[in-house]
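Summary of Year 1 activities. Much of the first year was spent building the evaluation harness for sequence design. The harness presents a backbone, in tokenized form, and records the residue chosen at every position. We chose the following record to illustrate the format because it has been used consistently in internal testing since the harness was completed.
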């Protein structure tokens, strides 16, 4: 009797596999960091001293004193892997374990920090 049950299960699995191969699943919608928010980070002169001060008081604990990462990911190459808009969105909105800073920092500070970090390549 176990052979019949196994044969039926194997047959059902085969039918499901054929169905999945013949009929595509709907395309996955883009969400999160890859969506265009319509916001472009302005190219402003970077105040490196202010950006570094903000980093030391808000980011150092999770991202390390040399941007090498600790509890959070390494940021020493963030400008090479993320656009300014992605960096700005992550700083302001948080996500993935990172807290949002839109209520803790001014937009000008976030833009300055974004432009400073976008140079990390």
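For this record, the design step produced the sequence shown next.
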């Amino acid at each position: 009797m176990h052979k019949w049950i196994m044969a039926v299960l194997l047959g059902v699995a085969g039918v499901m596999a054929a169905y999945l191969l013949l009929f595509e699943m709907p395309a996955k919608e883009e969400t999160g960091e890859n969506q265009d928010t319509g916001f472009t980070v302005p190219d402003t002169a970077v105040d490196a001293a202010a950006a570094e001060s903000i980093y030391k008081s808000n980011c150092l604990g999770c991202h390390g004193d040399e941007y090498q990462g600790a509890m959070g990911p390494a940021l020493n190459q963030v400008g090479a892997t993320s656009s300014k808009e992605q960096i700005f969105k992550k700083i302001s909105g948080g996500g993935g374990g990172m807290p949002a800073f839109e209520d803790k920092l001014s937009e000008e500070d976030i833009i300055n920090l974004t432009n400073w970090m976008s140079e990390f390549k």
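The radius of gyration is 23 Å. Quantitative recovery figures across the full test set are reported in Table 2.
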